[in-house]
Amino acid sequence: MSSTVAEKPSFLQAKFGGLPRPFWALWGGTFVNRLGTMVMPFTGVYLTQARGLSLTAAGLAMGVFGAGSLLSQLLAGMLADRIGRRATLSGGMLATSAIMLALGYSSSLPAILISMFALGLVMDIYRPASNALVADLVSPEERPRAYGLLFWGINLGYSVGVTAGGWLAGHGFIWLFWVDALSSLVFAALVWRAVPETRPAARESTGGFGVVLRDRVMIGFTLVALGNALVYSQTMTMLPVAAAEVVKLTPGQFGLAMALNGVLIVIVQPLVSDWLGRRDHARAFAVGLVVMGLGFAMTAFVTDVAGLAVTITVWTVGEIITAGIPGAIVAALAPADLRGRYSGLFGLSWSLAAVLAPLLGGPLLELGPRVLWFTVGGVGLLSAAGILLLGPAIRRR
């Protein structure tokens, strides 16, 4: 009598295997798109140096971009459920490509403001559709790993794109716009050709965003996500300012320390995403939020680049823990035919944080670095407490 023993999956199979081919097409498009994300990290420099705008005018341009971004997530969520995930994602990328070039060739302030608002409206329109696609394509058990791998691909592409963008900017800013536009076109084409439409048929009782807003668990989770986003958004708002003005680091020193974030994510994320995916979502998310909050609170005591590197390492560990979990929670809470709208509400929390983080962080930093960083750490702890309170309801879903 012969017996067979199940073979243990290989390392690569355990980390990257078992996910459907359309998911990897989505991953590849996301990676290429992030690889070409060169404009936004240099927007402030472009507006002031290449277009000669004052700091006030540049701030206004960034503000209207934020206003467009706030509207985009709700619009994108509705479109993903009504016209489909694939059409919303591909259409959003095509619009992004066209508007990116329009902004690159805009020279007057009115034209720049219109282009910036339109870019904010369409640039992230793919996110709710992408999140809904993963939920449609991937089993609940594998969703945390899938969302974690998407997060990994975004960071892998972005780290290379920003580096290349800095080099290209020296040869002319217009190159950044062309590369960004081309990467958006590639993303649109790849999704349209290789990813099937997965939108479930809408039920007659579907009530649009009214259903989402009546879901108390989702509203509570959105507030938790807002807290998480407010904490993380400090990396792009007040952390660079505090490093320069308080710790007196040069841009080179700050960039070197921040490179740790990308390196750790690229190396560690794929190694732990499958293990984290098997943990209880609410408890794992709470742990990640606590670690992130601790890392930012430690920034209050930073006096040199080595100290900053330590705090970045700590909050990056928290970021890695939380990376794949929110998308899985949203997918668990959402009815299949409303996944786009649920993802849109979740995305709104990040757009709102991008607007609120500098508005709140600036006055807090003026009161003192400890006031800012202890407050940021406190927000992380409050968010962790919030997700633990929601844990039983999330597990019931």
TrEMBL record:
Domain of life: Bacteria
PROSITE patterns, alphabetized: MFS, SUGAR_TRANSPORT_1
Stored CDD domains: MFS_MdtH_MDR_like (cd17329)
Pfam families: MFS_1
Topological type in the membrane: Multi-pass membrane protein
Keyword list, A-Z: Cell membrane, Membrane, Transmembrane, Transmembrane helix, Transport
GO molecular function per UniProt: transmembrane transporter activity
Domain Major facilitator superfamily (MFS) profile: residue ranges: 22-395
Compartmental location: Cell membrane
Name of the featured protein: Predicted arabinose efflux permease, MFS family
Listed InterPro entries: MFS, MFS_dom, MFS_trans_sf, MFS_Transporters, Sugar_transporter_CS
Gene3D superfamilies: MFS general substrate transporter like domains (1.20.1250.20)
GO CC annotations, alphabetized: plasma membrane
Organism: Nonomuraea jiangxiensis
Residues passing through the membrane, by range: 23-47, 53-75, 109-126, 147-169, 175-195, 216-234, 254-272, 284-302, 308-333, 345-365, 371-391
